[in-house]
Design goal:
By secondary structure, this protein is mainly β. Helices cover about 5% and strands about 20% of the residues.
Length: about 250
């Protein structure tokens, strides 16, 4: 079972829509890519009840269609959406876990992939998570530079620091995943994920284990029915980034 989210996040369930956020994006991996083969997107269910992902999908401003999701994401659960046109669940777990046969603690869902811009801008890339009725559940208009974290050519993901639906497109709420940070991993695979990309799949910086049945008091009074925003997180210390490697000749900076 996934660790429970702190109680202040469960108050988000007062909203009528499921509270599922895009929480990490590997959009410019160092591993070779022609059609986004080693790219992936992490989503997390912040609500207290499971969410049926049947018919859900990613989308963006491009004309390419993304594949349909399937399965259920439990309360506090995390899912990694991968390029199912190029990689399998086993490929991902081989590269991103110590033991691909053990329970990773998160779902891996292969889907037919669109593309994630390696050089995103205000109009490209606008990444959306849509439900089965095409309602926008989460939208991240991520960028590169201009206050957005820049992975250079180091193959680093970007991750959401604070679990606030209103801050998912704010540049200062995203950071680069660095080596040796809590929850970070360095990819080591034989298929697709073949270079030491750096990410933290399945790890949420704000998630802490909570003893079942032990309520947590909010930090301030809340009007009944009003969702609470989580308190600001203390940013983890980050080591100096590694030198930027030479660009792969088979990478396409689309």
């Amino acid at each position: 079972m996934f660790p429970l989210l702190p109680a202040f996040l469960t108050s988000l369930a007062a909203t009528s829509s499921p509270v599922v956020l895009i929480t990490e994006i590997m959009y410019d991996p160092a591993s070779p890519e022609r059609k986004g083969e080693p790219e992936w997107v992490e989503i997390a269910n912040l609500g207290p009840t499971p969410v049926d992902l049947s018919g859900w999908r990613l989308d963006d401003e491009d004309s390419t269609d993304w594949g349909i999701l399937d399965g259920s994401l439990e309360a506090g659960g995390v899912a990694i959406l991968i390029n199912g046109d190029a990689a399998s669940r086993d490929d991902f777990l081989e590269a991103w876990t110590d033991d691909p046969d053990a329970d990773a603690g998160y779902l891996v869902i292969p889907v037919s992939w669109g593309s994630l811009a390696n050089k995103p801008s205000d109009t490209n890339e606008i990444l959306q998570l849509l439900d089965a009725e095409s309602n926008v559940i989460c939208e991240v208009n991520y960028g590169r530079g201009k206050d957005w974290p820049d992975p250079g050519r180091r193959g680093q993901s970007i991750y959401l620091e604070e679990a606030d639906p209103d801050l998912v497109s704010k540049a200062d709420n995203w950071s680069l995943t660095e080596r040796d940070m809590e929850g970070s991993r360095v990819a080591s695979g034989s298929e697709v994920y073949v270079k030491p990309d750096i990410g933290s799949p399945g790890h949420l910086p704000w998630r802490r284990p909570v003893t079942p049945g032990t309520p947590m008091k909010p930090r301030r009074p809340v009007t009944p029915g009003t969702p609470m925003k989580p308190p600001p997180l203390e940013k983890p210390s980050k080591p100096s980034p590694a030198p930027i490697p030479a660009e792969d000749e088979d990478d396409i900076p689309y």
